[in-house]
Design goal:
The chain is an all-beta fold. Helices cover 0% and strands 56% of the residues. It has no helices and eight strands. It has a four-stranded antiparallel β-sheet with strand order 4-1-8-7, with no helix packed on it. Strands 3-2-5-6 form a four-stranded antiparallel β-sheet, with no helix packed on it. β2 and β3 form a beta hairpin. The chain starts with a strand and ends with a strand. It comes from Acrasis kona. InterPro entries: C2_dom, C2_domain_sf. This is Synaptotagmin-3. Keywords: Calcium, Metal-binding.
Length: 119
């Protein structure tokens, strides 16, 4: 089944501090089928609240996997990866919104998303 995916990046909790002083300036990047979106970064925050929504069109929910990456924004050096994970979109075929509490791999913490599919 092919449709449109609405993703709301709610927040993240207990992120790793990568900057001097033990903080981070996190943002969330979501990737699907080569298309990516990212939230604004939140300065010096290990528990950021984004509440930002994005849309992906022409998504095949049977096979699609949403990639989620959290980075620490740096002004001078390359942004540091704080953690990442993936979520299968197959359960969305019922067209019910799904709250996803996604633990971050290759880091610590968790990101919370709402996924919603429509035809």
């Amino acid at each position: 089944m092919v449709g449109t995916l609405h993703v709301t990046v709610l927040n993240a909790v207990n992120l790793e501090g990568k900057d001097l002083g033990g903080s981070s300036d996190p943002y969330c990047k979501i990737i699907l089928n080569g298309t990516s979106h990212k939230t604004d970064y939140k300065s010096k925050n290990l528990f950021p609240i984004w509440n930002e929504s994005f849309v992906f069109k022409k998504v095949d929910f049977n096979v699609a996997v949403l990639e989620v990456e959290i980075y620490d924004h740096d002004k001078i050096t390359r942004d540091d990866l704080l953690g990442k994970n993936q979520v299968s979109l197959a359960p969305l075929e019922g067209f019910r919104p799904m709250l996803v509490n996604l633990p971050l791999q290759a880091g610590k913490g968790m990101v919370n998303l709402v996924l919603n599919a429509e035809k």
